[in-house]
Design goal:
With 129 residues, the protein is mostly beta strands. Helix content is 7%, strand content 48%. The strands form 2 sheets. Strands 2, 4, 5, 6, 9, 10 and 11 form a 7-stranded mixed β-sheet that branches. The longest helix is centred in the last third of the chain and has 9 residues.
Length: 129
């Protein structure tokens, strides 16, 4: 069974940072691209960043550049999203997703989120002012 499990969400103060984790199981990690997305209340889901499981190349959506660091631990099949200089508008449910086709994931992160093979259940981040 393919599973993605996000962790690390919670309540954080504005100006701080947080690190979210996405544990991947049931698929070959290095055959997939893992992406991070978020959905704020009343808003559409948006792409943040993605990383290639094979060579760890990362891609970051322009609105997050300078605030996001994406990394992976291939032995632990885990991808980490670090988001800094948090603002109340970063309050959202954060999701990770996996896809075996990098072009599909990049399209989702930078443009329209279409079909992606696997999604996690999400982890809620609340940023207080």
């Amino acid at each position: 069974e393919v599973r993605l499990v996000e962790s690390g969400g919670g309540l954080v103060q504005a100006g701080g940072s947080l690190t979210l984790a996405c544990q991947v199981s049931g698929v070959r990690f290095d055959d997939h691209t893992i992406g991070w997305f978020r959905q704020a209340p009343g808003k559409e889901r948006e792409g943040i960043s993605c990383i290639s499981g094979s060579d760890s190349t990362t891609y970051v959506a322009s609105s997050f550049k300078g605030r996001v660091t994406l990394s992976s631990d291939n032995f632990a099949n885990t991808v980490y999203l670090q988001l800094s200089r948090l603002k109340p508008e970063d309050t959202a449910t954060y999701y990770c997703a996996a896809d075996s086709k990098m072009e599909r994931m990049i399209t989702a992160v930078f443009g329209t989120i279409g079909y992606l093979e696997v999604w996690g259940q999400g982890t809620l981040v609340t940023v207080s002012s």
